[in-house]
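Entry:
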Amino acid sequence: MKLIEIYVQMNYNNINNPILYIALLGERDSIRFTNIPQESIQHPMLRYIGNLPQSMAQFIYGIEYYQLTKYYGLISGYRLIMVYPDITAEAIKSLLDLPKQPHVILLCTEEERIIEIYTNLLKDYMNEDFICLTSNEVDNVRKFPCTTLTRLSDIWKWFYDYANKNYEIDKSRLPFSVPCLDKSVYDTGDVFSPTRTNTQTINSILGNWDYSRSMPKDEILERRLESSEVAMNNTVGFERQNLLIEQITKIRLLEDIVACSTQDIKFQEEHYRAPLILAVPYTSIEMRKLSKKDLLPEEEQMAQNLEKIMGYHQTHNYTIAHNVTNLPKELFPAMIYVLNNFVVPRSLFFDFVAQLHCSIRFSPYLRLPIMGKNINSELSFVGIKHIERLATSPSKNKNIRKVMEKIGKKMTDEMLSPKAVEMLQEYSSQIVAMTDLPIEWMMIDGIPLGFTHEVCRLPETPVTSLLAQYMEAKFTPYVIPEDILQKTLVVFGNEDPEFVMAQSPVRELAKTLGFQIKTCLNKSSFFKAIKETRPELLIIDTHGGVDETTYNSFIMMGDDIVTGDDVINSGIGPQLVFLSACNTFTTYNTINTIANAFFQIGANAVTTSYMPLHVRPATVLYIRLLRNLNEAAHKNLHLNWLSFISHLMRTSYIHAPIEKKENLNLKKEIQDTLSELSVQSMIFGKRRKVYEKLNNKEFTKSLNCNYEYIIPHYLMYSTLGRADIILFKSSLDNIMMS
């Protein structure tokens, strides 16, 4: 049967409607650490979702469902709704007023009082479409108003019966079957927590639903202790990380198998491959401090002790490097408490959120060791107290690169196994990094990751934003229209002579391309301009900075400071944001950023700066963005926004000599050479050679270009959000028509 026939069949009788997963959580709890998840979203039932199908079509057809998503580049993912007991009856009614489809309730609380609240809220809506899953800890669920399973293995019979009763299934298609492949492809998991995420993804691809073997708690605990003991005895080893690399290899192999069976692949490999979900937790100085305003006098000493204890990082083998804290013996019990109540929940939350993000494209997952004091000294050079001295003039550009590369090398040395480095050298896919670190600077065999790969980031701070980013990507996807430039607003935030001179070409370009320009010299005119034009792409060209007392970044409109709170309370809602302003997402000791604020009001992607920017090259960069976007919006050049923005940054670096005033009359052969390098950089397999040429003194001397003094735009900015699933309509139409 052809794939298109499977596609038609999957849409028959709502078979491809996503299963609605409803997580009933405990009471809302306040959070005092910005990078520690609340208790309510740490429940083990939330992690169990990765064992379950996303839709009945996936449950019935398994790997053929996966084959379909790969062929068409479809976006998948779990439809997960998280509910607290203070939800209103009206909200429950709205939530459950849906077409007939399976509803799986994950009961993520053991509190009888809260279970009673949910029972009363849900009792009028439950029918044969609902089933409730609970952990073995829940004893009193007799009153719950739908079928309740405490033995999780029973869920498969419920799904099987539901499928046979409600859908017309072609039995000749052998539903509920798993393909016969080489045994090395299958995966039953390991006790090392991050491997569970990849295990779930592999079995989700195969349609192998009931693969897990339930073990007694004592046996699970014993295995975990054995694993920890082995890791503690070899802290400099990479055995645990290499387990993840082996799993990633399996997922790539499954992609290869499906690609071979499909034959007609519509994408280049970098975009056909599922993006790598890369988690790099980082414990910064300010992130581990308790807010003094929230402390009682008797809590201050406790807060100081916690700050010392939480100055941790992990070794190569994911164990805590105890020597970094220099704690007196009397604080060791407190350290054990912190490990159990802060470090472990934080790591498990990363794995849970990663599972959700992996489900969007069936991505492999690599969680690296937690970074902390072991990189703080290197990062301090790009902290808000020192960064201005580092980047005061173009003559400092060489120093900027040296600092970036030093930080990048430190990240590689501290976190990556040789196998991981080798994998990333050859890993032709986009990368979605969950981290506050400048992961684009990571040096892979002497070349920054941000040059060889298309990388977007999901900020870790605040930690719940990782979950919010998934909800945003899953429930409000955005497709870039062909008339995006008519829905673009460029805001000039000052009338400084240097800015006005650099912006002159922008005004001329607007006459040709049709985007709007507004000059806003105060906060109110800024928000008024956005509300009037309602742009889908917002470009802001102004001053930016960081408040050293609050560690919050901001932008300026004239003499007015625009904070993140101002943005959140404004009522604006652009889908794409490009901040051409200094220090809007500094990478060291920044807690609340103006970039994060745009996500809270519904943005799908925000491009923001790590560093101070120089006015002319920064303006040239977004001029190129507007010109290139005019072409990309109408032609099948870039599949998604991440591809587009990464190419823009990379080629801005390549073309930088052409843009310099003193080089306006560069010889045509030099311009042609740089243009050819730009074309080659479109292809993943050629980027390393392009970078090596640009940093080969003999080659650059022949061009009369010295790249040591050129601003590396691909490292100065970071694109936040799931830019990999923001598709161009022009490319999407081409895929569906071919």
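Residues 1-13 have pLDDT under 50 and may be disordered.
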